[in-house]
Amino acid sequence: MTSTSNNLQTHQQTNRLDFLFEAGHTMFSKCPSLSRYYMNEFQNTLTEYELTAHKPIARLSCKSCGQINIPGLNHHIEIVQKKTKKKANVVAKKTQSKNLIKSTCLACGNTSLYHGSCKKKMPKLIMQKEIVIAEAPIVLASNSSTSSPPPPPPPPTTTTTTDSSIKKKKNKGKKNNLKALLSKQQKPNNSGGLGDFLSSL
């Protein structure tokens, strides 16, 4: 008999907490004052039932007025450096948190402090050398009478060449392109133009 009454009581408690939590979030955009009331009731119900919420849920709203914390809108967060005394023990320094998170509610002005995470510093990564991709210059074919398609350009090769060698390759490619264009203009056009076509009619 007692087990069923306990189960019923816990079921009623969870239903009440769920309703207050969802109502507080639903009414946040429509009526912020009513949302604060629901979240304040949610916190009071937790203390009444002697329950403790998880850290993310406990830090979700202001402990004083119940305002849902949204940084930048109704909530201000600041990182305060923690002043620590010099200790001889190096291990204690590594595991000790070095800063505090100061949370300020803009609705009631209540401030609360939270400890920062205790994480070791990561070692600095060694800068890797950048890989330069040099593309081979595309040379225009000098013989325009052939109908075969030009061969595909070779795939780009990954090299660590210097800037001066890349500039030299680009200059050579430009010279070759200019030579090919000049040779095209100098050759007579054997295919015939518009005048030849009209005279044949």
Please describe what this structure looks like.
Keywords: Metal-binding, tRNA processing, Zinc. InterPro entries: Rpr2/Snm1/Rpp21. Residues 167-177 have a biased composition (Basic residues). Residues 148-157 have a biased composition (Pro residues). It comes from Mucor plumbeus. This protein is α+β, with helices and mostly antiparallel strands and 201 residues long. Helices cover 41% and strands 12% of the residues. The chain has helices spanning 2-26, 32-48, 55-58, 90-95, 163-186, 194-200, and strands spanning 75-81, 99-105, 111-115, 132-134, 157-159. It has a three-stranded antiparallel β-sheet, with no helix packed on it. It has a two-stranded antiparallel ribbon with strand order 4-5. Helix 1 (2-26) runs antiparallel to helix 2. The termini are far apart. The relative contact order is 0.07. The mean pLDDT is 74.
Quick structural summary:
With 201 residues, the chain is α+β, with helices and mostly antiparallel strands.
List key phrases describing it:
zinc; Rpr2-domain-containing protein; alpha+beta; metal ion binding; two-stranded antiparallel ribbon; metal-binding; 201 residues; three-stranded antiparallel beta sheet
As a whole number of angstroms, the C-alpha radius of gyration is 38 Å
The biggest beta sheet is recorded as: 3 strands, antiparallel
Query: What's the helix count?
Result: 6
Oligomer: single chain
The main sheet orders its strands as 1-2-3
User: What share of residues is helical?
Assistant: 40-55%
Terminal CA distance = 113 Å
Q: Looking at the structure, what is the overall shape?
A: elongated
Beta strand %: 5-15%
Run of helices and strands? HHHEHEEEEHH
In total, how many beta strands?
5
- Contiguous low-pLDDT stretches (5 residues minimum) are none
Structural class computed from helices and strand pairing = alpha+beta
Report the mean per-residue pLDDT as an integer.
Answer: 74
